[in-house]
Amino acid sequence: VQRYKGFTFKEALKDVCGEGVDLRFILDDARPKPQEKEPEIQRLELPVNAVPISNDKNPKFREMAIRYLESRGVNYNDAVSFRVHYTPTMVVFPYLEYDEIVYWQGRSLSPAIKVFEFPDQRKVGVGKADFIYGFDNAEPGRPVYLSEAIFDALTVGPGGLAMGGAKLSELQVRKIKALNPSRIVLCPDNDTEGMASVYQNWTLLSPYFDIYFVVPPKTKDWNDWVKMADDKQMALKAIRTYISKNQEKLTMAKAIRFRMNARG
Question: What residue ranges in 7-131 does DSSP mark as E strands?
């Protein structure tokens, strides 16, 4: 509403909620803390040599990118939908907010070399903790599934969001609140850092939402399950069925137990 009607935040709230609503509580809750100033939405440029996956300008590198994505369980149609780009050395995932590119992440095309690239924070003034991958693909009012990495978010299916790390930032929490999810399912990595993150993420989210959790049963993360499978699509179905059937309500006692177990 702010963007398309040119309203201030307060005017937009009145437009959505009606003139009679008391905005004081909402405004107090939504007002950024001084040290957590919300970055302005700005369209960042992708790497200069990045080409949409649908463009066959460089067929050799495009084919390499498609094969790499398929090895991680991302088919071509989904890659087009998510606006994935490619370069001679990496695939590039744009972060979209309200159809604007606000950030991006690159991943090396070589499975043997785990290299990440991001915009230069010194130049753009923002980092990965300021955004959450999958924001525009999540349907407001529906469940969201929080995982660490982009490939994990794409693996868990619709509503998958990637934090870019094990623990949420305050700004990421505010973006999740904007989606007003019906529930949040934490899908952490099955390692010490992932287990430790469950408690912190629960403390940030539990005042606002019902929180659930589910952990990969055999692998470190969700996409590892896909990488190890011969049939990637069957693995994706199995993962999503597993998450649906095995997610549990995260109570305070369970969250504390995660923290204690992570500490050993």
Answer: 51-52, 85-86, 90-97, 100-108, 116-117
Token digits of residue 60: 């050799």
Beta strand ranges found along the chain (DSSP E):
51-52, 85-86, 90-97, 100-108, 116-117, 144-147, 160-162, 184-186, 211-213, 248-249
The neighbour count for residue 177, using CB atoms within 10 Å, is 14
CA atoms of 72 and 53, how far apart (whole Å): 15
- 56 in Cβ contact with 80 (< 8 Å): no
CA–CA separation, 79 vs 232, rounded Å?
Answer: 15
Q: Rounded to whole angstroms, how far apart are CA atoms 196 and 189? A: 10
d(CA 133, CA 225): 21
Cβ–Cβ contacts within 10 Å for residue 67, how many?
11
Q: Residue 124: helix, strand or coil by DSSP?
A: helix
pLDDT, residue 96, reads 94
Torsion of CA 55, 61, 62, 64, to 10 degrees: -170
For residues 217 and 239, give the distance between their C-alpha atoms in angstroms, rounded to a whole number. Answer: 10
3-state DSSP call for residue 85?
strand
Q: Per-residue pLDDT tens for 18-58?
A: 766 555 544 444 444 555 555 565 668 899 999 999 999 99
Quote the DSSP letter at residue 133.
B
